[in-house]
Predict the 3D structure of the following.
Amino acid sequence: MMQMVQLFNSRETEISHYWWENQKNAELKEIIEDINKDINQITDSLTSDEARIQAKEMSDEYKELDEKICFIKNIRQIKKRTTFFELIKKTIATVHFVDDGMIISPGKLSEIKLHPKAYNQIGDFIGKIKEIKKNKTAIELLAVYDQCRKKTKDQKAFKDKFRQILDESSEGHLQAASTLLNDKEYKNCNFKKVDIENIVTEGLKSALSRAIQVPKLSKDVQSDFHKFCDLQVKEIRGQLTKEDSELIKMGNICEFHRKEYFFKSITDHTTHILYMEESDKLERELGGGKNLEEWKSEKTKLDSKFKNDEVNEEVYNQMSREIEQKTKEAEEVRRFKLVIDKMVLSGEGSNERISNLLNKIYSNKDKIREIKRQINRRTEFQTAKDATAQFARDINTFSGGQMERFTYVAYKKYVDSILQKVCENDNLSVSGIRNEKIFKNMSIEDYGRLSGVLREYGSYGIDLLKGAIELLKNPEFAPSENVVTSNDIASLTEAINHHKKQDADLLSQIINGTENLYDDFKKELNKCYNEIKQLTPHKPWTSKISMLYHHPKHAREFGNPPVSAEDYFGRFSKQIFKEENLTSEGYSQDGAATKRSYTSRHEFKKHVGFTTKNDEQEIINSHFTKEEFHK
């Protein structure tokens, strides 16, 4: 009987397992069918054969279930899907979809990862147009001022009168400008022939062209952008409506052109050698087979061997001298490498420009000549250098301007390379500070922030980062308790740079941790920090460290003497961050947050502000003024 029961239970288990496996397979089959149906619906919804062919080719590449889901998830978030697939086909771009976005040209020099929401915004000029409308009075007055100022004897007095018109009036400003030009004080300037209407129209066109960053493409494309700018200026001046069919049509055409150029600027560089890899290889070759960190590591190993009696004193002393000499040579090579890397990734990679800058920065002309001779012998490095400099120029409209501000993988590698030098290790850990892994798992926005700092400050960038880290290691530096992100480090480097402009020796004293300038700087920041800790800004800021940097930098822009932290983070912040001043709103590169821009006026100056909005909270990044009548 017992055997029968066991046999029955075993048979029941087999049947149950068989049923469950069939059930799972049936459910899986149904899921796959639904997914394939979704992909077919996407393909069928496209309105051109080229787009449908490209979409099918791409979807067929995805064999696994999770890959198909990533494809559907990303495509559903792209607004103009037909255009998207048409451009991929036209530019022969390689696009790979992952869970949190798409990677274009994976593994290549021009690789970039971005979210579909960020892609949608390429060629969306609405925010820049709103900003120009908000600043229309100033742009028009500035155009008239620029046209006429050189004819006056006292340009400063002339500028002050235009500032006064701007400060006092938003209506009737052109009439006020005309009255000023016809004043008897300027009767010898021949201003009666000045065509104010034409001047302000051209001024607005010029401002719009700069704002939307017209790419340098074919004459036909340039013509389309010029036509769009002409129509848009008419709309800004009230001579057309937003709904004008020709204006809408040209706006769509120019959006297409900018998106096409985005893909083309990537695919033009897919076959080029990866620059940072070549640069690192060259550094080792010129540094005696190792880079600076590796020679330092050799010295540490030698010290350990000597301590453990594995080498005698004579051998130790001889090897120490050799390693120390190699370390000095590697330090010199490193200095040259940092200058060259920065120039190449800024699009200035010609041998002549690099040579001129090296000669300006360093006094050892013989060493410079030797470095140049060695570099010129390496064909692969030269090829990578020239191609990367051209790539940097081609993508500058997307990476370095005021539109998308994308961070490409080449710049992530550049930041990692610098951080490895600063941290003196490959895993980017920083010993001796509160958050030793502050540079680990950085977002693309974090990389973009550090890349901007390093590219702006050039050869000082690495020293500024070292200075910031040395500050954090000092127990007397109170703000270190609030430094928790790489963005805080970036703010600290900018705070140091702001003060360095007043005291050239400050940076070296911070790195060495000695002398009066360092002590005074530390006390000043501690005082500012303690004041900021007591404040409650009207909206949250990125961090206390960001506040610590922004107030000293921008306080003078709002008054003389400089306004207090309470006023900067209070009433002047309230003045700009109002919904009526909102000019643009768009997604970050990773699609995780919304970036907002605000524009207003403070006296005769332009007042701008920037925030990041997450699910529930809007966080202030910065606000400051811009002097427009600066000539």
In short: Residues 2-45 form the longest helix (44 residues). The mean pLDDT is 88. The longest strand covers residues 594-602.
